[in-house]
Amino acid sequence: MDAPLRVGLVGAGPWAKAVHAPGLADHPGTALTTVWARRPAAAHELAEAHGASVSRSLDELIEQVDAVAFAVPPAVQTELALPAVQAGKHVILEKPLAADIASAERLADAVLAAEVASLVMFTLRFAAETREWLDDLAAVGGWVGGSARWLSGALLGGTYSGSAWRHEAGALADIGPHVIDLLDAALGPITGVVTSYRSEADLRHLVFTHEGGASSTATMSMRLPIQPTVAEIAVYGAHGYRSLSRRPVAGIERFTALLDDFAAMVATGTTVHPCDVRRGLHVQRVLEQAKRATRTRFTSP
């Protein structure tokens, strides 16, 4: 690219402060141009720290940029992102795409109709070790099952413990997209949710079926006093057992790799990527199946 991609940031919460803003400001292919948030004071603080301007409205932000990154709760992302997409701006979207399937479909349809580049923040997919692990699995094949565990105390204290939407939607909405995406990428597309159990303390247990006959399980919680976070995924089959653990590194490392791909997509006119809005919609549909299948108690036969 002759010049860095001008990117506007919508949102100024902890994730935007820790990942989006520094990542966009420091990446050679992007420039954090302007910030807009519903809390003007937070937007000013974030913009000043990275040499960006503050937009007085979403429309003002859209007019100044080539692309927009969203660091907002799922319930508001569709309504905020639609004007940007309809104006032909490329987008970096949070996961999950929306709070419900209808809103996710509206957003995905708009992105595809506008033919803009899109990436969803499945950040673990952009880690080098994840890419190598998935490439190795695909090369040998023969995997018949898998499992994932993601256990943390993120909602008991710390940076994100005050997040209202995370408390309301729970582990399925926040951790679930990562778990679903990784199991799906490792074992083939998830075709069904056999079981979805949620305890009163929001401990989730799920069983998935995959295209091709594989099956997998997932356990997740954000309300367990576990430090550091346990985040592991494994598959097994004809070639034994292969596991992957999340390294305890800052999300900005993976976001930088995401921006590598995003800048390249825009520069080459590419709109297709393994983690584009289509992927976001597929994961949203699996989340919807899991919500519909959820039980909070088991009864004896």
Number of DSSP E strands: 13
Please write the CATH class name of the largest domain.
Answer: Alpha Beta
- Overall spatial form: globular
Task: Specify the structural class.
Answer: alpha/beta
Q: How many domains would you count in the coordinates?
A: 2
Q: Looking across the biggest beta sheet, what order are the strands in?
A: 12-11-7-10-9-8-13
Question: What's the CATH topology label of the largest domain?
Answer: Rossmann fold
Beta fraction: 15-25%
Distance between the termini: 63 Å
Q: State Rg.
A: 19 Å
Tell me what the CATH architecture of the largest domain is: 3-Layer(aba) Sandwich
Question: Could you spell the SSE succession in H and E letters?
Answer: EHEHEHEHEHEHEHHEEEEEHHE
Protein name: Gfo/Idh/MocA family oxidoreductase
GO molecular function, one term: nucleotide binding
Keywords: Oxidoreductase
Domain Gfo/Idh/MocA-like oxidoreductase N-terminal: 5-116
Structure description:
- InterPro entries: Gfo/Idh/MocA-like_OxRdtase_N (IPR000683), Gfo/Idh/MocA_oxidrdct_glycsds (IPR050463), NAD(P)-bd_dom_sf (IPR036291).
- Keywords: Oxidoreductase.
- Residues 5-116 form the Gfo/Idh/MocA-like oxidoreductase N-terminal domain.
- This protein is an alpha/beta fold.
- The chain folds into two domains: 5-123 and 252-276, NAD(P)-binding Rossmann-like Domain (Rossmann fold); 128-246, Dihydrodipicolinate Reductase, domain 2, CATH 3.30.360.
- It has ten helices and 13 strands.
- It has a seven-stranded mixed β-sheet with strand order 12-11-7-10-9-8-13.
- Helix 5 links the parallel strand 5 and strand 6.
- The longest helix is centred in the C-terminal third of the chain and has 18 residues, at 251-268.
